[in-house]
Specification:
CATH architecture of chain A: 3-Layer(aba) Sandwich
Number of strands of chain A: 10
Number of strands of chain B: 19
Distance between the termini of chain B: 45 Å
Number of helices of chain A: 10
CATH superfamily of chain A: P-loop containing nucleotide triphosphate hydrolases
Largest interface: A-B, 33 and 23 residues
Largest sheet of chain A: 6 strands, mixed
Helix content of chain A: 25-40%
Strand order of the largest sheet of chain A: 6-7-8-3-9-10
Radius of gyration of chain A: 18 Å
Shape of chain A: globular
Shape of chain B: globular
CATH class of chain A: Alpha Beta
Largest sheet of chain B: 11 strands, mixed
Oligomer: heterodimer
Number of helices of chain B: 10
Chain lengths: 249, 427
Amino acid sequence: MLEIRELAASIGDKPILKGIDLTVPDGEVHAIMGPNGSGKSTLGYVLSGRDEYAVTGGSATFNGVDLLDMEPEQRAAAGVFLAFQAPIELPGVNNANFLRTALNAIRRAHGESELDAVQFLKMARVATKQLAMPDDMLKRNVNVGFSGGEKKRNEVLQMAILRPKLAILDETDSGLDIDALKIVADGVNALRGPAFSALVITHHQRLLDHLIPNRVHVLAHGRIVRSGGPELAKELEKSGYAGLIAEAA
Amino acid sequence: MEEPQWARVDHPPIDYQDLHYYAAPKRKAGPRSLEEVDPELLKMYEKLGIPLKERAILAGVDPDTVENTQVAVDAVFDSVSVATTFQETLRKAGVIFCPISEAVREHPNLVRQYLGTVVPTGDNFFAALNSAVFTDGSFVFIPKGVRCPMELSTYFRINARNTGQFERTLIIAEEGSHVSYLEGCTAPQRDENQLHAAVVELVALDDAQIKYSTVQNWYPGDANGKGGIYNFVTKRGACRGARSKISWTQVETGSAITWKYPSCVLLGEDSVGEFYSVAVTNNHQQADTGTKMIHVGKGSRSTIISKGISAGQSNNTYRGLVRMLPSASNARNFTQCDSLLIGDRCGAHTVPYIESRNPTAKVEHEATTSKIADDQLFYCRQRGLSEEDAVGLIVNGFCKDVLKELPMEFAVEAQKLLAVSLEGSVG
């Protein structure tokens, strides 16, 4: 279970998050919506440990352990996965090698044996097949020369292989056509289960037709201004954020 | 002659009167057992996966010392037996691989014919010094049409360990022969000598191919820039025959100062020169390294791929010359120089010289400078990699085009070495 209490964070002198309260019980998928600049991506970065952001107050625990106290790789080992809005290119680093190194680092942290190249490839091929991705995705350099859609799908592939307990998807759906969107939703749905939860940051109701959330939260000016069921997303699609933000201000 | 001053390196004046020229340098008392060796050094050996016995020898533990007799003798014994089987196979193929001092005695005609013809005695200050005083080094001769049955490695040549400051290497590949030569070792070696001025000469006749790979990891000095080796080396290959090929691959991570330009003189028609280099500098290390490709023959081709990585407060310079002479019709060169910066106190410099005196010759030069970006590190760490593993992965990716040119077993060691050399350079 992810529990966030009064979380405040800033970049430089500029406060971005101004007291977030949010609980995501195990097995649930929560959507975070809200206008540009409301702090959605910052929330993802703060939870995963990007050090440009300074936490100025509050707490965030996952399954009882304090996330904010850990290095990014320790959070990854604890099961936190961030699907980046703009995935990073690693020239010369083979995708399969990158993923195997990451998976083995996490396995080591859990005291599990490492996978050799053959075992890993077997497993990775199953994942690419499930996600309808070409095998050569594994041979290419991490995100180098990938189209926008391929980069997003590569994030989903990484998630499928690393099998996180808490996935944070930062606008993974933006810029995707409807087929790719379904692949992303299927990727998350395949992981759904009692020991998996997700925070899905999105601008569009569209994704939530395929990936039905348990709860929807609206973030504005660094605070959650409204929460509700899946119907809230549909309502926002019609009426926009303006009314909500005026209410909150 | 005077010391060259044009390199971007800085060091106190060298007292040439204080060097040992005619005798093997007297050994100072080395550590008597592994317990007396710098623990940092031992930690590094462990990370590189070097067997315990070899660690003792590399760390300079005196083999005659009582405490370690067993260890050292075993190690030497191992090497002797490996070296012996090795010599047998080579002899059957007609290949000569021996200390150059032995070659002078056993094969004087070959030595006389080739020595000093690629790097003349007066070539440069350090080559002159070496030519005047060298005592030993390696000699390789591959006869006509022979493909050397194994990779030749100095690592197996026991006496290579104490050749000292002025090593001399001569490799001759006759018509249609092939040889791959490996120099160095990934383990950082302690050495009492501060100045190293080696000379390497390669000769390739018609259709011959020489591949020369180096992993250089001499003591770089401590984190404050004290101590460390000055590595001032002259390496040059002559592609004398038509369609001959000389390929230099180097991974340079050690030494306080590296001054080194493995070059090719492409005399033969359609001859090929290649230079693949990774140079890593950390802390206060300085490297000024690159190559010269001198195109004389028609249709000669050369490729230069240089990857410089600077970390700490180090300076890393690529200096290269591509010269197309009037006779070099339709000659081609492609150069790619990439620099990677880690941190904000280091420097990367690129100094390419291009001279073309033939209008049909083609020269291409590409260069990039980049930094390991914070977002790349964060991306890797978010996936579970430690910061050091992330740097290792990114740096190895950056060097991939060069590392793939190394013989297989060397490539694996070199990858580990890159990661270890850069440890602690981030954050």
